[in-house]
Amino acid sequence: MSKWTTADIPDQTGRTAVITGANTGLGYETAEALAAKGARVVLAVRNLDKGKDAADRIERAVPGAAVELQELDLTSLDSIRAAAEQLRGDHPAIDLLINNAGVMFTPRSTTKDGFELQFGTNHLGHFALTGLLLDRVLAARGSRVVTVSSVGHRFARSGIDFDDLQWERSYSRVGAYGRAKLANLMFTYELQRRLLGTKTVAVAAHPGGSRTELTRNLPPLVGAATRLVEPLFQSADMGALPTLRAATDPGVLGGQYYGPDGFGEQRGYPKVVASSAVSHDTAAQRRLWAVSEELTSVTYPVPVAS
Fold it and tell me: Which family does the record claim for this protein (predicted)?
């Protein structure tokens, strides 16, 4: 079988893609590849200066590219609501919403709303943003919500601890990351059930082992070990391929999960991969959805999944 690359991305002219965390790493590579295929890309970023630098780089690489900036701080529900309001005003339809931004292995801290940082940023922030923009996504025929997870979701072997969602009793950098990435998958699967009967699908992806800025918060011993094997990691442009395939391949089905095809899904070209058994716990998915609605005060304009 042929290996899927950016050459396989269909023409994206006339389509709008909103990409969180698009100023660097996977998000940047995703934005540049979509812009090169004609999409209007919106870089939803926390730091506008870095976002402007990224937009300039895309415009140099892709002459005539349609690039916009949107300020978005996923650690703040106020910022998320403001960004969603601006995006709704600017775009009557959004073809691709790519939930890419994230933090990994951070020391114990909280978002501006008091949520544990990794769970609050990686899951709750994207849950709120998606809900607030979903009517605009539904307005675009063939639209997709793509959420970036990680092989690290397998760290959460026992699932999500709903009795200590915010890690107030004890804290593990790796454990919190694993649960947040598990939540990304559970969100995708539950959202896909709720989207049945619409022209929109929810898909997930993961980049394998990729060289990005996410590793900056690794604990000292883990960081030292990671630096030794980092030359084996793939580049950010390769790491972005699963996201790009999930977002653009005409053969993608709702609820699928894309990752690299190499050993341990650490590197390679994108294919459909499997997620952990606990990620498919329907009751836990529904409970996570209900808790997320309660914590963010965001409800979705789609029916409850049957």
Answer: Belongs to the short-chain dehydrogenases/reductases (SDR) family.
